[in-house]
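Let us walk through a complete example step by step. Step one is to write down the protein sequence. Step two is to encode the small molecule, adenosine-5'-triphosphate, as a SMILES string so that its atoms and bonds are unambiguous. Step three, shown after the inputs, is the structure prediction itself.
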Amino acid sequence: MSGEALLEVRDLHTHFFLRRGVVKAVDGVSFTLRRGEVLGLVGESGCGKSLTALSLMRLLPRSGARTIKGEVLLQGEDILKRTPAQMREIRGRRISMILQDPQTSLNPVFSIGDQLCEAFRRQAGTRPAERVREAVAALRRVDIAAPEQRIGQYPHQMSGGMKQRVVGAIAISGEPQVLIADEPTTALDATIQLQYLKLLKRLQRQTGMAILFITHDFGVVARMCDRVAVMYAGRIVECGPVRRIFEAPAHPYTRALIASVPAMSGPAGRLTTIEGQPPSLMDLPDGCRFAARCAYAEPRCRDAYPGMVRIGDDHTADCWRLAAA
Ligand SMILES: Nc1ncnc2c1ncn2[C@@H]1O[C@H](COP(=O)(O)OP(=O)(O)OP(=O)(O)O)[C@@H](O)[C@H]1O
Ligand SMILES: [Mg+2]
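Step three: the predicted structure of the complex.
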């Protein structure tokens, strides 16, 4: 699948400027999200997935994070250059996000209905009577039974899975072209998780929106995504169609990640884990960031960053061993 580019991220750098140093959490991220696709963003905890997403939304934590370089082109327009007022127009209507911790996205003192109506007021400026009808329809769209009753309830009266559906309904209320879902199912148990993934996939088909799906779980990638971008220590190290990456992962880090997926690695109980730790984001090496953990590392891997190598149609990886000698 090689559709039209909807969102293009180019050389994005978002750092935390702290008293004890600079944390390079996002440090040269580039990828393209195409119209109507689900692109997975996968990598170990702390590699910069959430911060990449928050940079695209321009909703960075107040604790000293700044995007210092790069472009985020939404249909060719760099949204990093937009004013805060323009960003408020863009957020929700063109690009929207389901946060990693859904429980904190709902306000405990307002009813579900009030929170949905507020979203519709902001997105579409509809009249109050229409908003209630839209709120009921929105709950029905995310498979919440008896929405007319549910609408008067408060978050604490709902299960985790139901709250997550409400958060999803709010996120898509403005019919965004791009939805960022940041580990939307980590807080849910396995059955509920599966239902939620199916729901997201169905909504994606119905609306045609493109999804940037963040997860650390390659099993979820296989279920949800068309293409996948693998992130390591602040950068994308491999990107390509999901099937290709599963069949022929090119970067040693991607291979190690796939080998650590329970259902996909040989006999049960023989889970591979990746030895060692990622480098400190305060003190990144000049060379390949994975070199210290890589079984194939050569001297040149430690000397200089490999740069992106095109391996095949629509498939790239940052690895010296793949570069022409
Ligand atoms: N408030 C903060 N102050 C300083 N550093 C931070 C802060 N928040 C995050 N970081 C750093 O930024 C890096 C990237 O964080 P991010 O939340 O993007 O990781 P992630 O890939 O989403 O991880 P996870 O899978 O655990 O959600 C982390 O390694 C962390 O060290
Ligand atoms: Mg995260």
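Step four is interpretation. The radius of gyration is 21 Å.
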